[in-house]
Amino acid sequence: MGDDRGGAPVPSPQQARAQASAISSGRTAPETEVSPTSQLRTLFDRPRLSPGQRRIAQYLIENLTEAAFLSITDLADRVGVSQPSVTRFASAVGFSGYPALRERLQSIALGGRGGTPAEENGGNELQAAVDAEIENLENLRRDFADPGQVIDTGRKLAASAPLTVLGLRISVSLAEYFAYAARRVHPDVRLVTRGGSVAYDALLQSREAGGTWVLAFSLPRHAQETLNAVRVARGAGLKVALITDLALGPVVDEADITFATGTGSRLVFDSYAAPGVMCAALLQAMTDADPERTQARLEEYEQIAEQHQFFLRD
Predict the structure, then answer these.
(1) What are the tens digits of pLDDT across the range 62-79?
(2) What is the pTM of this model?
(3) Distance (Å, rounded) from C-alpha 90 to C-alpha 170?
(4) Which domains, ranges and CATH numbers included, belong to the chain?
C-alpha cells in the first residue's frame, strides 16, 4: 500500500476521499433555486400523456428559452403535431389553454435566465459548447441540493449482488467507467455492453444469481435495444435505475428511478459532463452505504496494486 515508516500506512487518495467525502442528506436550503429543467419535469410529470404529448413536453424541456415565446402555430410546426394537440397538451398538464401554459413557461424561462460569458462577449462555438455544459452542471448542482434520492439509490445499488450495469452503443463509455469504479467497492459488478440475446442472457443470469437492481444508461441517440433490454430486466424482476438526458419517454416509463441530466449537444458529437458527475455521485453514495466494505476492498486493492506495480509512482 503506502509507505509505512513506524506509523499507520498512508491511505491512497481514494481511501482518503472515501473517508472524508460522505454525502450529507441535508434538506434543500431555502435560498436554493430549482433548475428550469426540474421545474418542467415536475410540471409535465403526468403518467397518461400520449406519445404526441410527450414529444411536445420533451421539446419544451430541451428548448425552453425559445419555445416559451412561440405561438401555438409555431410550436405545433416545430414538434410536428397539430394545433389541437398542443391545446390538449396544455389541458393535460393542468392549464386552461395554451396561453396560460405559455405564460407559465415564460415565467420559468425568464426566472432561470442569465447570459453566459460566451453569449455576452460574442464567444465562438467551442466556448458556447463549454457554456452549455456549465449550464448542465449548474442544473445538476441545483438538483443535488436535496441528495436524498442519490443516497437512497446508492444504498440499493450497493445492496444488489450482483449489480448489473447496462450501457449500449454511445452509452458504453459511461457504463464502463461506472462498472470499473464500482468494482473497487462492490464484490460483483456485471457490465453489459452488447444488446440483443447477449444482454437478455446477462440480465436473466443476474436475476437468477440474486441481483435486484440494474443501473442503465440511455443517452442520445437512444437505442431501441436499450429499451428492449430494460423491459427484459423488468420482466425478470429486476428494478432499474436510469441515467439519461430525457425526462419523459418510453425508457423513462420503464425505469423505477430516473436521473435526467443534460448532455452537451452544441458540437457534432455530444459531451457528457453532467452524466459523468452523476455517475461519480452514485459511486460516492455506494461507498457511503457500506463504509466498512468500502475500506476493506480499497485496502485490498491497494495492496494488490502495490505488489504488482499497477501504477507509476508520483
Answers:
(1) 888 888 888 898 899 888
(2) 0.72
(3) 34
(4) 36-114 (1.10.10.10), 147-304 (3.40.50.10490)
